[in-house]
Amino acid sequence: MGIFSKISLIIWLIILLAAAIMFDWYGSRELVASFLDFSEVAVEKLETTGDHVQGIIETVKEDKEAVQEGLF
Q: If the chain, 72 residues long, is cut into consecutive pieces of 10 residues, what is the mean pLDDT of each piece?
């Protein structure tokens, strides 16, 4: 399967997915809405985790600087 075939297949799948959402085939709107809610929760969790890790990194840097200043 050539690269053009793969790109064409992906485009057709996107068009089919868009049509399914537009016409609400098999409850696709509800599935997409629940997926978006889930992904929003996941992004918020990643943001919180990133903020905590950033705080830990800053604390370690400050402690390292304090130790280096105390030694010299």
A: 92 95 92 93 95 95 85 62
